[in-house]
Design the sequence.
C-alpha cells in the first residue's frame, strides 16, 4: 500500500497493534489543540458518518461520543491524516469546553526545564529568606 | 500520584508500556499542528534542556533530533501536558518545513466521509457520462 497516495481511506490508516490510532482534536478556527484521544476503525467511520467525534476508551474498553453526557459535542469540520497515515488530526467546532476538568483545552499546564525549575526554586527560596 | 497537581515533572508523566508518550508539535503563533512523534523520558529531558525537539524513533529504535540532518529544527517555546498527563503538546518555532515530504505540516491530506466519497464518485461518474 502506497501511503503517499492522496486518496487514502479508513482501511488504509495504520492502526496500532491494539487497533487504535491517536486523534489530535483541534478547534478549526482558533487553532487551539483541545485534546488527544484514540479511535479504532469503527469509531473513525462513525465520526465521518455522523459529523460528531467518536472515540474508543482504552480504560473502559468502550465507544464514547464526545459530549454525549456533558453536551460539549464536537462538530467535525475535517479529518486529516499525517504523512505516515498513523495519526489523525480532527478539526472541530467545540461546543462548551473540551476537558472534563472544566478547562477549555486539556493542555492547560506546562512542564518546565529541570534547570529552570531548579533556578526558580533557588530564587524563590532566596526571596523567602530575604522576606523573613 | 495526584495528576491534578499543577507542578508535575517528567517522572510524573504517564509513559506507555513501551516507555513512550505521544508529543503533538504545534507552531506556537499560527497554531498549525505540524507533526506527532514519540518521546521517552530521556528525549523529553533533552528537549527541555536543549530547547530543540528530541524524539524516540520506534522504527529505528534510536533518538533523533528534529532537523539534525535537514536543518529544519524546532525551537521549543513551551511543553504542555494534558489532564491525564499521558500526552504532550510542544509549542515550537519551526525552521523550514516539518514534514519529510516537503510539506509544511505532516497533516496535508484529508479523509472523506464514505457517504460523501460515494456521492462524489457517483456525481463524477455522471458528469463524465454527460461529457462523453
Sequence:
Amino acid at each position: 500500500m502506497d501511503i503517499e497516495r492522496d486518496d487514502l481511506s479508513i482501511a488504509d490508516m495504520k492502526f496500532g497493534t491494539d487497533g487504535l490510532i491517536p486523534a489530535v482534536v483541534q478547534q478549526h478556527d482558533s487553532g487551539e489543540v483541545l485534546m488527544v484521544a484514540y479511535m479504532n476503525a469503527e469509531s473513525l467511520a462513525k465520526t465521518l458518518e455522523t459529523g460528531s467525534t467518536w472515540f474508543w476508551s482504552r480504560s473502559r474498553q468502550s465507544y464514547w461520543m464526545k459530549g454525549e453526557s456533558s453536551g460539549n459535542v464536537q462538530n467535525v469540520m475535517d479529518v486529516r491524516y499525517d504523512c505516515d497515515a498513523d495519526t489523525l488530526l480532527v478539526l472541530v467546532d467545540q461546543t462548551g469546553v473540551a476537558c472534563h476538568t472544566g478547562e477549555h483545552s486539556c493542555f492547560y499546564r506546562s512542564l518546565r526545564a529541570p534547570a529552570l525549575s531548579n533556578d526558580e526554586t533557588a530564587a524563590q527560596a532566596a526571596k523567602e529568606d530575604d522576606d523573613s
